[in-house]
Design goal:
mainly alpha; 64% helix; 7 helices; two-stranded antiparallel ribbon; 121 residues; globular; 2 strands
């Protein structure tokens, strides 16, 4: 008997909660964000290209197999997104997230996850 096992990169547990899976995805996204930050800082990319790089490199990591675990609490996933946006436009941590999202014209990752769950066959 095991408490959890990894199948196709997703952790399943005997309690049917996907917290370990989400934490693993967040760890993977943090590693990728580190490399993204170094690239962005080295070549001074404009904000629109920086956001596009995030959407094409980090969001797929954060939403991997979200069709299975997407019904649960997504606060940890959104925190990564908000942390990145704060870093991109260099605002204080006390700036409300909804203002940052509105300024950059962004939507929560929860919308992407919900669309993937709806389209899952």
């Amino acid at each position: 008997m095991v408490d959890s096992y990894k199948y196709l990169g997703l952790f399943f547990s005997k309690t049917s909660n996907f917290n370990k899976a989400k934490k693993h995805l967040i760890d993977q996204a943090d590693k990728a964000l580190y490399f993204l930050y170094t690239r962005i800082n080295n070549i001074q990319l404009p904000i629109d290209l920086t956001l596009k790089l995030f959407d094409h490199t980090i969001v797929p990591i954060l939403t991997y197999s979200c069709e299975v675990w997407g019904f649960s609490n997504l606060d940890l996933i959104e925190q990564i997104h908000h942390k990145f946006l704060r870093n991109v436009i260099k605002v204080k941590k006390t700036t409300p997230s909804y203002m940052i999202m509105a300024e950059l014209g962004r939507h929560p990752i929860e919308i992407i996850i919900n669309c993937k769950m709806i389209g899952f066959n």
